[in-house]
Write a structure and sequence with these properties.
This protein has helices at 17-27, 53-67, 77-94, 101-116, 122-126, 159-170, 220-226, 231-242, 257-265, 308-315, 332-340, 356-368, 376-386, 450-455; strands at 132-136, 141-145, 148-151, 183-187, 193-197, 207-211, 247-251, 274-278, 290-294, 322-325, 348-352, 389-395, 401-413, 416-431, 436-442, 480-481. With 483 residues, it is α/β, with parallel strands linked by helices. 37% of the residues are buried.
Length: 483
């Protein structure tokens, strides 16, 4: 349930001057008629809090510090508002602010969110239809909704308010952000991913990016319903996870790699011991036997850092059945490959790449970053022996996220790694609303991993890899136009 109203997203117009007078007389203490009511709502619905509002906020915060011993003492949201509203009205009177009922409610909501939530963006975080919140300085807040970026009417008062929200997020995690350490990765209590960067690195003010995670993790049935995958691919990839194939999920930023990793992890048998390793813990595994590890940045003195690579090495001593790494982005790629080649089958991870072939090239680069001098052929042999399947995900131009390629690693021929495509996304048209029509189609090639899947006691239908007729898996293309 949302704690605060949606007035932060789009506010109503203020009332007339006569209504201001009636509202002020009915809902607040008498104020000197020295200053006119504030007309702070612009023509586009944006709102700028008056400078004197800072005094109101300070008075309310002083009351909380002096009179309230703990937040639990305030009770629920209804009791909280009821107890603080008289203090708020007194603060308006002391600051000589005459405001309309709309502005009064807006300012009160903003104050409550600022003290007990994440400031002006709290209503955006409460909404399930928003997948990402991007704060580009105090006066520009974007959201991602249905794959599209939208500029909101939300504004912070100043840089200090943005910094306050950032510190409220990172402090409970034992992390810090200041001029000496102006970048930080963190997470919200619900697992949503957070990145913050502040001046002097960010020239336009503090920037905050929050990628929200669903309260109910997506399952493979949801991806089939959205058109991200087909039932045939879902059946195949489930068999791959159960049969302990090593799978890499590849894609660009915001393409849905972590979501796919969560879905794949849902196929892991409940009696397996799973160790997860992440920059900021965000995976939502449902198995009962999961050990979650999270890297630790260096302290103020530059000491105490624990890297992903350190955690990968340590995880090998924890008797894991599966190792799940949130993302491989450095020298830990070598340790991951060695783990996969030394009995830790069924491992899952993600990495950034544009195609399945490029993902293998990127793994080579990451292994070279480990500092261990290995010939390129030896690195490729490690990759060919460790990686079984690469799932490529892409966010298409209509905002939809789809699996566009599933490739199997077959081994080495000479100095090259050999791959074959098992499933490839085929676009068949574009609807009038610019939605892309197409589906993931089988190439007709049978995977070499079929033997390993059969050894795990899984029997796949004989026609699972038969190519469908063009457009057979697509949604019906009504009112389409050419590609």
């Amino acid at each position: 349930m949302a704690l605060f109203s949606d007035r932060f997203i789009k506010a109503d117009k203020p009332q007339s001057s006569k209504q201001h007078e009636k509202t002020a007389a009915a809902t607040g203490p008498a104020v000197p008629p020295a200053e006119p009511a504030i007309e702070a709502f612009n023509a586009d619905g944006r709102y700028t809090a008056p400078p004197a509002f800072k005094q109101v906020r300070e008075e309310l915060q002083k009351f909380l510090i002096d009179e309230v011993k703990s937040l639990a003492e305030l009770g629920g949201i209804a009791q909280l508002r009821q107890r603080l509203e008289p203090i708020f009205n007194k603060g308006l009177a002391d600051a000589h602010l005459v405001v309309s009922r709309t502005e009064r409610a807006y300012l009160f909501d903003m104050l409550i969110a600022d003290i007990f939530g994440y400031g002006p963006i709290q209503p955006l975080l409460d909404r399930d239809d928003i997948s990402e919140v991007m704060v580009n300085g105090p006066h520009q807040v974007y959201i991602e909704q249905k794959g599209k970026l939208i500029l909101t009417h939300v504004k912070f008062i100043d840089d200090a308010q943005v910094l306050q929200v950032i510190e409220r997020i990172v402090t409970p995690l034992g992390r810090r952000i200041d001029e000496a350490s102006p970048m930080v990765d963190a997470r919200l209590p619900d697992g949503s991913r957070v990145n913050a960067i502040i001046p002097p690195l960010s020239l336009g003010g503090p920037c905050l990016t929050i990628r929200k995670f669903r309260k109910d993790p997506l399952k493979i049935e949801d991806l089939i319903r959205f058109g991200s995958v087909t039932p045939e691919f879902a059946q195949f990839i489930k068999a791959c996870v159960i049969a302990k194939l090593n799978i890499f999920v590849s894609g660009g930023t915001g393409s849905g790699k972590t979501t796919m990793l969560n879905v794949l992890s849902g196929f892991i048998p409940i009696d397996d011991r799973v160790v997860t390793i992440e920059d900021a813990a965000e995976l939502q595994l449902q198995q009962p036997h999961v050990v979650r590890l999270e890297k630790r940045p260096a302290n103020v003195e530059g000491k105490g850092e624990v890297t992903i690579r350190d955690l990968v090495v340590n995880s090998l001593r924890m008797r894991p059945d599966r190792i799940v790494i949130g993302e491989v982005r450095g020298g830990e790629a070598l340790d991951m490959l060695q783990a996969m080649n030394t009995g830790h089958d069924g491992s899952l991870t993600t990495l950034h790449a544009n195609t399945a072939r490029e993902s293998l090239n990127r793994i080579e680069t990451l292994v070279l970053m480990s500092g261990v001098e290995l010939p390129l052929r030896a690195i490729r042999q490690q990759i060919a022996a460790a990686v079984d399947m690469v799932i490529q995900i892409q966010r298409l131009r209509d905002g939809s996220r789809r699996v566009v390629q599933c490739a199997e690693v077959l081994g080495m021929e000479g100095d090259m790694i050999v791959m074959q495509d098992l499933f490839v996304f085929e676009q068949t048209g574009i609807r009038e609303d610019d939605k892309i029509i197409g589906a993931l189609q089988s190439t007709g090639l049978r995977p070499r991993a079929s033997e390993k899947i059969a050894d795990a006691g899984i029997t796949l239908p004989a026609n699972l890899f038969e190519p469908k007729r063009r457009g057979e898996n697509d949604e019906k293309p009504q009112n389409t136009r050419g590609r």
